[in-house]
Fold this protein.
Amino acid sequence: MVMRFFKQNVWAAVAITLLRIYVGWTWLTHGFDKLKDGFDATGFLNNAINKPVVDKATSEVLFPNYTYFIEHFALPNVKVINFLIPLGEFLIGLGILVGGLTLTAAFFGMLLNFLFMFAGTVSTNPWLLLLGFVIFTAGTNAERFGLDAFLLPLLRKIWAKLTRKQDANPKGQDTVHKGTIIPR
C-alpha cells in the first residue's frame, strides 16, 4: 500500500520532483565545478591503493578486487578517468534535474557513489546514495514531472521501429498485430 502510493500518487510525484531537483543540482554543480576548474584523480586513486578500506579487527582489505581494478586499470588510464568522472557527474545531475532518463541517471549516480565509497571516501556519498535510491525506487512516478514524460514515449516509438523484425513474415503476407493489419 505504501509502495503503491509512492509509485503512483501525484503528491508523491511532486515530493520526488522536489527531491530530484535537489539531488540533480548537487550532482550538476559537483560535475560542473570539476569540468570548469579541472580535475585530477591521480591523488585520489593513489590514496585508494595505498590506504584501502580494511577490516579494523583483522586488517584485511575489504574490497581487494576493487583495489586491483584501481591499481591496474584506473590509475594507468587516469586521463580517461579525469574526463569521465566530471562528465558523468554533470550528466547524472542534468538527467536527474530535468527529469530526462531519470531512472538511468539515478542508477549511474548510485553506481558512482558506490565506487567512491569502495575507494574509502565517505563525504556526501552515503547521503546522495540514499536519495538516489529513493528516486530510483519511485520508478515511473519520478519521471512524471520532467522531460521523461515527452522523451520516453518518443524513445519507445523509435525503439519499436528499429526492432520490428523484417524476416518475421517471409511469405510476404500482411501481419496482424493487436487487431491492426500491418502491410508488409
About this structure: The radius of gyration is 22 Å. The mean pLDDT is 91.
